[in-house]
Design a protein that fits this description.
Layout: H1 16-27, E1 36-39, E2 42-47, E3 52-57, E4 70-75, E5 85-88, E6 94-99, E7 102-107, E8 111-112, E9 117-118, E10 124-131, H2 134-139, E11 145-150, E12 159-164, E13 168-173, E14 180-186, H3 196-202, E15 206-211, E16 215-216, E17 231-239, E18 244-249, E19 259-261, E20 265-267, E21 278-284, E22 290-295, E23 299-307, E24 320-329, E25 348-351, E26 358-363, E27 366-371, H4 374-383, E28 401-407, E29 421-425, E30 430-434, E31 440-444, H5 474-482, E32 490-491, H6 501-584, H7 591-598, H8 613-633, H9 649-724
Parallel strand pairs: 4-10, 20-24, 28-32
Antiparallel strand pairs: 1-2, 2-3, 3-4, 5-6, 6-7, 7-10, 8-9, 11-12, 12-13, 13-14, 15-17, 16-17, 17-18, 18-19, 21-22, 22-23, 23-24, 25-26, 26-27, 27-28, 29-30, 30-31
Length: 729
């Protein structure tokens, strides 16, 4: 079974293709290279000894079938020059390998079968290869290839741009039988063959370039479709003295001229003009673009490309400038001795396709990981509305972080062990680094994207209300607490390195101090924060339970009040019926007849065991009404019966009394309906309040449970990393 270590989660160090490279690396000139690239989960490694490519599917690294793990891609026209860098295009259809003396392009065959291998998984596959402009580079030995990149705007993904030491850009189409030269232009002064070394020494030659995000030119109002003809790709070229040139080119329209601006001014102005040993440039895919310039002394300049004119102006009318907002000093080696000289070496900058705000630096002393929070602030500012731009102005709240991930040299007396390759595998993001010893370091990269829970508050708000403040999650708070100003790198020294006892003691002391100050203390602080958060959540939960119990009591009180109102309503109905019978009955009707006609005589004798409390109260009220009716209708012994007048006087009196009773009845019915409406409103309000309380309590309880589970997982992961000595970014 394949052995997987903590520093090599893919188990690539045990592959024979990397074991064979260690012997050849020891014979080569010790300098930083990039002999490996990853595209579409396929890892391409250059064999420096036999001049061919190895292909390895990293997704099949967990398989035990070693025979189909890697393939040998043999070129039909192998190069005779030394290859220093390997780059695959986005579609994984071509791979270019170049050195200072030439460029070779591999046309990859189709993939099918198990693990998606080339030609179904053959161990050796013949690939069609072409040398780019071989005659030109052979006849001009003073011309050195500085940088080659695939053009991102190529529709077929078969166009490359080559930068040479004579400040010349050469644009090629590599598809077909032979590569075709499409365009040539010069940036700055174009030296003769005898003056190239002089300009190189003065730093007046271009050393690197990189592409930025495309820009769209104005088009006719009749045609609203955006085509390649109206898409321009700006690129930025770096010279050795630190000057930066801005170049605009369109891939589709080869007849159009290339606009070159520069050198661009850098602000704020510095006495040393921001160094004179620039070696690499990188353009992050942000808007506005962030241009990163690296120097051999380990200084990194983070700059913003801005224009002094409005964006609506044309390219020729716009004055571009670089605004330096941050300077980072890299630690090239641990520097255990105070009297060590400052080491200088070229630094290669690498994109991270999985995170725009992250990039990598490889050099002779190891690998650094850089994080730029400024990119996220620029994205929020670019997406803001016009009235919110002032509120979302980038303020540089967090400084960029530089983590020393891999260290290959501890002091100036240690032998060099430069990094030979560095690439990023996707899905999930994995850093793959090839060292001089043939060892491969493959570590998982932690994504810097934080997913926020959906807010319970509606996003629709008044336009004049301003910008809503965002709630800071507890996970982000924990991540800020765990941020380290100093990291403990993985030590991967050269095989011939023999540190003294003093150096070993200093290494152990430094590692102990870093682990205590930057790891354990921060984890203890995070543990205290988690315990405090748990106590707060527990207190909140108890308070919510008390509130829920109080709401239940209020509900019971409202229910009893509703029952009491219902009893009063029934009593009023009985009294009203009695009064109506009393007013509408004829004078000759006796009390017994009134009681029988009112239907209340039978209720006087109803037993209390057969009715509930409400009916019992109704029976008592009806019985009292019957007695009152009998008393009013039965004259006393001393009283005389009223005399009746002839005619219709009794009928008129009865009609008047009936009208008054009906008016009183309508008034009572109106009061009863008002009472019923108020009762229904109170009951509905109580029911709605209870539902909202139950829903809010459920959501809070669910959020508390999720937070508790996340905290337990994070604490478990932190304990595991602390136990294993993990230092992943």
């Amino acid at each position: 079974m394949e052995v997987v270590t903590f520093t090599d989660i893919l188990g690539l160090s045990k592959q024979t293709i990397f074991k064979n490279l260690s012997d050849y690396f020891s014979k080569m000139n010790p300098k930083t290279r990039s002999l490996m690239d990853c595209s579409d989960s396929m890892l391409f490694v250059w064999n420096c000894e036999d001049s061919y490519l190895w292909a390895l599917n990293i997704k099949s690294s967990e398989s035990s079938d070693f025979k189909t793990m890697h393939q040998t891609l043999l070129p039909t026209n192998p190069p005779s020059f030394e290859v220093e860098r390997v780059k695959a295009n986005r579609t994984s259809s071509h791979v270019l390998a170049f050195g200072s003396l030439g460029i070779v392009v591999f046309e990859l065959p189709r993939r099918w079968g198990k693990f998606g291998m080339f030609q179904g998984g053959k161990s050796e596959v013949m690939c069609r290869s072409r040398i780019v402009d071989e005659r030109f580079f052979r006849c001009n030995p003073h011309v050195v290839v500085k940088q080659v990149r695939w053009h991102p705007g190529s529709a077929t993904d078969t166009h490359i741009l080559v930068l040479s030491s004579e400040n010349t850009f050469r644009f090629y189409q590599v598809a077909g039988d032979q590569p075709t030269l499409l365009k040539v232009w010069t940036v700055g002064r174009r030296p003769t063959s005898t003056r190239v070394p002089i300009l190189v020494g003065l730093g007046d030659t271009c050393v690197d370039f990189d592409f930025a995000l495309p820009s769209f030119e104005s088009y006719d109002s009749d045609d609203r479709s955006v085509t390649n003809s109206c898409v321009t790709w700006p690129l930025y070229a770096l010279q050795g003295n630190g000057d930066v040139y801005a170049i605009k080119m369109s891939r589709a329209d080869m007849s159009s001229s290339v606009d070159v601006k520069g050198p661009l001014c850098m602000f704020p102005q510095a006495d040393d003009n921001y160094g004179g040993d620039a070696c690499s440039i990188l353009c992050l895919q942000s808007n506005p673009p962030i241009v990163i310039v690296a120097t051999c002394s380990g200084t990194i300049y983070h700059t913003l490309v801005l224009s002094s004119e409005d964006d609506e102006g044309s390219w020729n009318d716009t004055t571009l400038a670089l605004y330096v907002f941050e300077i980072v000093e890299l630690e090239l080696g641990l520097g255990l001795k105070d009297d060590d000289d400052i080491y200088a070496c070229p630094i290669l900058l690498h994109h991270d396709d999985t995170a725009v705000s992250r990039y990598f630096c490889s050099h002779d002393t190891g690998v650094h990981v850089m994080m730029l929070p400024m990119v996220d602030e620029l994205e929020r500012y670019a997406e803001a509305k016009n009235e919110e731009t002032d509120l979302l102005m980038p303020l540089m709240k967090e400084a960029s972080s530089a983590q020393y991930l891999i260290c290959t040299r501890t002091s100036s007396s240690s032998p060099l062990a430069p990094v030979q390759a560095l690439t990023i595998g996707t899905s999930p993001p994995i850093l793959i680094c090839l060292l001089t010893t043939g060892e491969v370091v493959s570590v998982a990269l932690v994504s810097n994207t934080t997913f926020h829970a959906s807010s319970l508050v509606s996003k629709d708000h008044d336009q004049g209300a301003g910008l809503e403040t965002q709630r800071d999650s507890f996970v982000e708070h924990i991540q800020r607490l765990l941020q380290r100003s100093t990291s403990q790198p993985l030590l991967k020294l050269a095989p011939t390195a023999e540190p003294s006892a003093q150096e070993c003691l200093e290494l152990v002391s430094r590692a102990t101090n870093v682990l205590r100050d930057e790891y354990l203390q921060k984890q203890f602080q995070v543990c205290d924060e988690m315990q405090r958060k748990v106590r707060m959540l527990r207190t909140m939960k108890e308070h919510q339970l008390k509130e829920l119990s109080s709401m239940e009591d209020s509900r019971q009180q409202l229910k009893e009040s509703a029952e009491h109102l219902a009893e009063k309503y029934e009593d009023i109905k009985v009294v009203n019926r009695v009064e109506i019978h009393l007013l509408s009955a004829p004078q000759s009707q006796t009390a017994e007849e009134l009681v029988c006609s009112a239907g209340i005589g039978t209720l006087r004798e109803c037993p209390s065991t057969d009715i509930n409390s409400a009916d019992r109260g109704t029976c008592q009220l009806q019985a009292n009404s019957a007695e009152w009716l009998a008393e009013t209708q039965t004259p006393s012994n001393n009283a005389k019966a009223p005399e009746r007048t002839p005619g219709g006087c009794d009928a008129e009196e009865r009609e008047l009394r009936t009208a008054l009773a009906q008016r009183k009845l309508r008034k009572l019915e109106l009061e009863i309906s008002l009472l019923e409406g108020e009762e229904r409103r109170q009951e509905e309000a109580h029911r709605a309040q209870l539902c909202r309380a139950q829903e809010w309590h459920g959501l809070q309880l669910h959020h508390a449970q999720q937070t508790h589970v996340a905290l337990l997982r994070l604490l478990q992961e932190l304990c595991t990393r602390s136990f294993l000595g993990d230092d992943r970014p």
